[in-house]
């Protein structure tokens, strides 16, 4: 049966160094499904071939399965036993056999959403990483690749659509209102890429002709009524297919590419061969229900999953320690794609903001791990910002060091060498070395070492000669299990601006910091040059650089790299906030002037300006402090926001007085314009001027799309006005039947800066529309709360208790999603003693629960170290 109690009580640690090649290969698999919501019968015929020299038992992994029958070469077989959840078949000295196993599973009872489960009356699968073993007994490791033939049969009324990987080669009707389909995938694949969908779905059909003229049928399958909201996803898919041909020379390799959207899904989406399965939130979008950011999310995730067809499927991972091989590379690919589709500068700002918000804290805490981890208890816990986003930064650095053209030579070689194989991170690095002609010996430390490197920079000036030297030093902090770190290779893009007519180096340079300390001659300048450092965030590091007064403001105004302008203004804001929180009297006017100056560019590039003038988040301010003071940070950030709001009131009002671009227009400029209006409204509202609730309510009511509507609602949700109550009610009534929009209704309330947000969240958890069964809903309420620093860290510990209660209630149903709520509690070391004590007590309370999953046990116990 598919329940959580099947997971062992004492977690076993798996080590990367223990990898052994499989003893049996499975060239072919035939699966037969007799489909039912409460009972699905699965017959698996595995043709196995021994690869070990000596006889070895065939171990087939299971999770909550019972073998109803075992046959070998067509005959009943008794030489098998259960070893815990696994099935071990003794095949004597045979070197090949067909092993047939029958199992029965209950998709309706599968609340973990791993394996085969029911969602809204349809059946679907999620097998990565180890979900296939919840469907049938199988080695279920990514280095065992097979050709799949899948037959499924079910009630035609319940399941009119039957889909699996590859091509449908036959279908037919059978007795009792049933029908069947036979699917075949010609490409050998690991079990984690298997997928099956059965349900009442409608399709948006299109086609794409590949580089070599292959006509590919495209289908996006959704529930009746949702098909109108799939056009953006379809366009994104076609753009991705074209982009991968142009930029990486990668062509699609089947005649059919299907995507199915499901509402109950643990993650964003899954790249199953020829049959991607998506969380609805990354497929469905129309101007009335989706914000511009939602649109970008759809485009990025559609591209990500499509790109996996090469970086992940054609070349897959040898074992799960290599996860970043496919995820880091694929995130880098989807980031580059989105940059090409929109604004490269804004995309880079967003990606860096996400890295700093999610990955830097992870790397600085008890759950820090290298992008290629050395050990795990539950692999689901390693689908992290480190493996994905730091992994992408590591690929980006290689790209930066060798340039686009040579990088392409490296990836061409990688795909050529390893097509059809299960590869390692080391294989990738070696292909880049050989293809691009570069030595990455030292660079490999990025795969081995956890922790965000810190680069210290200082300019030494010889006032007589005018010579200036940049002194750089690097240090990687200690992380759990890695007390001592070695220097790595850090590529830093730099440029020096001369304000005084000297003769310095004016061109951008790539400095390779390849030792603990290094001196970089900058040239001769009459006065200290303005140094732009780590431009474009060329390395994912923290830079400590004591700036002279006025430098950051100058760079914010004049640097020719937009990312560097953004970075300078952020640093200026950050310095001001940190000083204020530390009790210094601060002068807001430097920041106000810089914001005013940046706003001057809004006509040319509103999207960039909107990003640049946003204040750093409360959490990011906290990350700069030895002991985080959430209340002081909130107070000082609101004070700065109000000061900017008041000083530039006329500008904000002028922006809001302009007619917003129609919601259906998704051009870069239109999106930027809307984003800037949202920022303007937030600054204006921060002033507390009496007319601001009415202004926000006006925007909320007049909005012709979700971007403006949600921005206005979120602004109102911070306050205490009658308009807040009215807007929340109108929004709820209008969208109560649309789950994705209802998520926003929960989310804006959990994001609120109101002092009673924790109580509000507790109350919302009892709302009839709240459910633990849907991961999106859980994240929209509780995930939003943990991102709301001052609320989550409320001094009485109520935020901590609420999250621990959630973890305890959710774990028996959905351990994967429960475990994802734990890391915020694990950041206790950064807080005062009273908060530390309460946070640890909640982690201990979680660990004291009987029957805890492996997922939650690992995260909670490691979080206490
Ligand atoms: N490979 C998927 C992606 O595109 C993520 C799947 C993760 N699933 C899981 N159960 N951990 O990133
Ligand atoms: Zn992925």
UniProtKB/TrEMBL annotation:
Keyword NADP carried by entry: no
As cofactor, the record names: Zn(2+)
Q: What is its EC number?
A: 3.4.11.2
Q: Which Gene Ontology molecular-function terms are recorded?
A: aminopeptidase activity
Domain named Peptidase M1 alanyl aminopeptidase Ig-like fold is located at: 451-544
Per UniProt, residues of the Aminopeptidase N-like N-terminal domain are 97-193
Give the superkingdom in one word. Bacteria
InterPro entries noted in UniProt: Aminopeptidase_N-like_N, Aminopeptidase_N-like_N_sf, PepN_Ig-like_sf, Peptidase_M1, Peptidase_M1_dom, Peptidase_M1_pepN, Peptidase_M1_pepN_C, Peptidase_M1_pepN_C_sf
Q: Domain named Peptidase M1 membrane alanine aminopeptidase: which ranges?
A: 233-443
Residues of the Peptidase M1 alanyl aminopeptidase C-terminal domain: 551-864
Q: Which UniProt keywords apply?
A: Aminopeptidase, Hydrolase, Metal-binding, Metalloprotease, Protease, Zinc
**Sorted alphabetically, which Pfam families does this protein's record hold?**
DUF3458 (PF11940), DUF3458_C (PF17432), Peptidase_M1 (PF01433), Peptidase_M1_N (PF17900)
The record lists the catalysed reaction(s) as: Release of an N-terminal amino acid, Xaa-|-Yaa- from a peptide, amide or arylamide. Xaa is preferably Ala, but may be most amino acids including Pro (slow action). When a terminal hydrophobic residue is followed by a prolyl residue, the two may be released as an intact Xaa-Pro dipeptide
Family to which this protein belongs? Belongs to the peptidase M1 family.
This chain's protein is named: Aminopeptidase N
- Name of the gene: pepN
């Amino acid at each position: 049966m598919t329940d959580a109690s099947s997971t062992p009580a004492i977690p076993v640690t798996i080590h990367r160094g223990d990898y052994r090649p499989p003893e049996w290969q499975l060239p072919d698999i035939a699966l037969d499904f007799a489909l039912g919501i409460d009972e699905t019968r699965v017959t698996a015929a595995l043709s196995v071939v021994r690869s070990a020299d000596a006889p070895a038992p065939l171990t087939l992994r299971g999770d909550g399965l019972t073998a109803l029958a075992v046959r070998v070469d067509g005959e009943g077989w008794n030489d098998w036993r259960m070893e815990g959840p696994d099935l071990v078949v003794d095949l004597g000295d045979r070197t090949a056999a067909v092993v047939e196993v029958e199992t029965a599973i209950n998709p309706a009872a599968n609340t973990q959403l791993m394996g085969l489960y029911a969602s809204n009356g349809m059946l679907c699968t999620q097998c990565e990483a180890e979900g296939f073993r919840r469907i049938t007994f199988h080695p279920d490791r990514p280095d065992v690749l097979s050709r799949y033939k899948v037959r499924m049969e079910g009630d035609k009324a319940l399941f009119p659509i039957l889909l699996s990987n590859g091509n449908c080669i036959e279908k037919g009707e059978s007795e009792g209102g049933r029908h069947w389909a036979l699917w075949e995938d010609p490409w050998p694949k690991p079990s984690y890429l298997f997928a099956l969908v059965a349900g009442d779905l409608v399709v948006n059909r299109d086609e794409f002709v590949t580089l070599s003229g292959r006509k590919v049928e495209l289908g996006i399958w959704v529930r009746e009524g949702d098909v109108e909201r799939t056009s953006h996803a379809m366009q994104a898919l076609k753009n991705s297919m074209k982009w991968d041909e142009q930029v990486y020379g990668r062509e699609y390799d089947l005649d059919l590419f299907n995507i199915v959207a499901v509402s109950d899904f643990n993650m964003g989406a899954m790249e199953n061969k020829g049959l991607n399965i998506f969380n609805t939130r990354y497929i469905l979008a129309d101007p009335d229900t989706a914000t511009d950011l939602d649109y970008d999310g759809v485009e990025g995730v559609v591209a990500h999953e499509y790109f996996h067809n090469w970086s992940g499927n054609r070349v897959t991972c040898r074992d799960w320690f290599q996860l970043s091989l496919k995820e880091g590379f694929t995130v880098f690919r989807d980031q580059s794609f989105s940059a090409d589709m929109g604004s490269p500068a804004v995309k880079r700002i967003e990606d860096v903001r996400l890295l700093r918000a999610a990955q830097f804290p992870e790397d600085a805490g008890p759950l820090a791990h290298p992008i290629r981890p050395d050990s795990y208890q539950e692999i689901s816990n390693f689908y992290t910002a480190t493996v994905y986003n730091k992994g992408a930064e590591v690929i980006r650095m290689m790209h930066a060091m060798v340039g686009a053209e040579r990088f392409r030579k490296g990836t061409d070689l990688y795909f050529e060498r390893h097509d059809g194989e299960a590869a390692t991170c080391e294989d990738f690095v070696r292909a880049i070395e050989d293809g691009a002609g570069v030595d990455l010996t030292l660079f490999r430390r990025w795969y081995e070492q956890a922790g965000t490197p810190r680069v210290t920079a200082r300019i030494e000036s010889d006032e007589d000669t005018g010579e200036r030297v940049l002194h750089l030093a690097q240090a990687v902090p200690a992380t759990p299990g890695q007390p001592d770190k070695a220097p790595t290779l850090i590529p830093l893009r730099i440029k020096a601006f001369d304000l005084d007519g000297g003769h310095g180096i004016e061109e951008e340079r790539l400095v390779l910091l390849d030792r603990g300390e290094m001196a970089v001659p900058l040239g001769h300048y009459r006065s200290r040059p303005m140094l732009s450092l780590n431009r474009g965030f060329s390395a994912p590091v923290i830079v400590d650089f004591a700036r002279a007064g006025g430098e950051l403001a100058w760079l914010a105004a004049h640097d020719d790299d937009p990312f560097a302008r953004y970075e300078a203004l952020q640093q200026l804001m950050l310095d001001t906030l940190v000083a204020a929180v530390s009790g210094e009297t601060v002068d807001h006017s430097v920041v106000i002037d810089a914001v005013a100056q940046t706003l001057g560019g809004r006509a040319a590039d509103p999207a960039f300006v909107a990003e640049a003038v946003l204040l750093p988040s409360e959490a990011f301010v906290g990350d700069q402090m030895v002991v985080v003071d959430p209340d002081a940070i909130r107070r000082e950030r609101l004070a700065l926001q109000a000061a900017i709001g008041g000083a530039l009131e006329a500008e904000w009002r002028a922006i809001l007085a302009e007619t917003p671009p129609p919601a259906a227009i998704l051009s870069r400029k239109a999106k930027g314009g809307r984003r800037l209006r949202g920022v303007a409204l937030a600054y204006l509202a921060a002033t507390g001027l009496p007319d601001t609730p009415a202004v926000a309510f006006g925007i909320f009511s007049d909005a012709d799309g979700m971007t403006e509507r949600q921005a206005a609602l979120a602004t109102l949700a911070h306050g205490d006005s009658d308009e807040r109550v009215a807007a929340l009610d109108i929004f709820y009534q209008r969208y109560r039947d649309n789950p994705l929009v209802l998520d926003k209704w929960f989310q804006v309330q959990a994001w609120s800066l109101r002092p009673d947000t924790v109580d509000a969240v507790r109350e919302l958890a009892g709302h009839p529309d709240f459910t633990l069964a849907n991961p999106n809903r859980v994240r929209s309420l509780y995930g939003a709360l943990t991102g709301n620093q001052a609320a989550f860290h409320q001094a009485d510990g109520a935020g901590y208790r609420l999250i621990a209660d959630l973890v305890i209630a959710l774990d028996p149903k959905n351990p994967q999603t429960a475990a994802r709520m734990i890391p915020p509690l694990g950041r206790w070391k950064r807080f005062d003693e009273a908060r530390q004590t309460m946070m640890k007590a909640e982690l201990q309370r979680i660990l004291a629960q009987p029957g805890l999953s492996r997922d939650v046990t690992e995260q909670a116990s490691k979080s206490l170290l």
